[in-house]
Amino acid sequence: MNAPAVQAPPAAAGLLLSEQDFEALAKVIHVETGIFMPAGKRALMQSRLAKRLAARGLKDFREYRELVESRSEPDEIGLMISALTTNITRFFREAQHFDDLRENVLPGLLDRARAGGRVRMWSAGCSTGEEPYSMALSVLALCPEAPRLDVRILATDLDPVVVATAEAGRYPASALANLPEDVAAGATTPDKADPGFARICDSARKLISFRVLNLLHDWPFHGRFDVIMCRNVVIYFDAETRDRLWTRFAAMQPSGARIYVGHSERIAGEVGALYAPSGITAYTRTETPPPGGGRSISK
Ligand SMILES: C[S@@+](CC[C@H](N)C(=O)[O-])C[C@H]1O[C@@H](n2cnc3c(N)ncnc32)[C@H](O)[C@@H]1O
After folding, report:
1. Can you give the pTM of this predicted structure?
2. Is 231 among the residues known to form the active site?
């Protein structure tokens, strides 16, 4: 990337991230995640990655850059990405999506499940789990028997640290204090060991499979998803990577299926024909076939 010259940011503990090292690391991040880090993010990268240098006992960013570029330690790339991405989330975030899910989408899907059919939902970029648990609690509010039906929620994120937190299903009680009334009953149980925490109920946990998955890599499944939530994930992707992702999602959704994106995200332009707007940042899959069947866009 041709970054304009930026004044060197003040370094913590004497560590300076040079423009060259910033550009090299930003390139690795872009290739690995689709996240575009403009030159203005140099100070942020410097402060967030200082702890990785300390953890690795490295003396400067040049050594860290060499370690990352050598790709000899894939785990370090994951940890670098984890240090640089934001995992902010909360239960029933962007409540209108869950209202739409409960009022307009789930009733039909759950009728299908009760008749023996299959229902699949995906929280893509699930962070610490609040989003897929909100989906699961919405399902249970309408269909308490869902764990005995063929209803499953896939929850994925590239960051193994947040996926482990999600899988544990344990949250500060304050984070669970304002669940919508119709889902709250039985949704959580107090953590006996620590009254400040609560656990998500087993029936919600049973509906969800958690996996580490980079959305830019191959997807090791073929199913069709009736609902996808991919919210506040593509915000830092460049336009091409974002549109490739929408096209791949479209290849995994039958017509009539719903996708929800983040409040500042849109499915528009060249890929706009794949989805019809269905409310605020909600879209319904059209019958338009994705270019190349969605395959050409896999990395
Ligand atoms: C801000 S959180 C959003 C969480 C949730 N979807 C929500 O809206 O509340 C963004 C998540 O996207 C994940 N992420 C970013 N790039 C990704 C990629 N290429 N593949 C998979 N997950 C990614 C990050 O690790 C982070 O947990």
Report:
1. 0.88
2. no
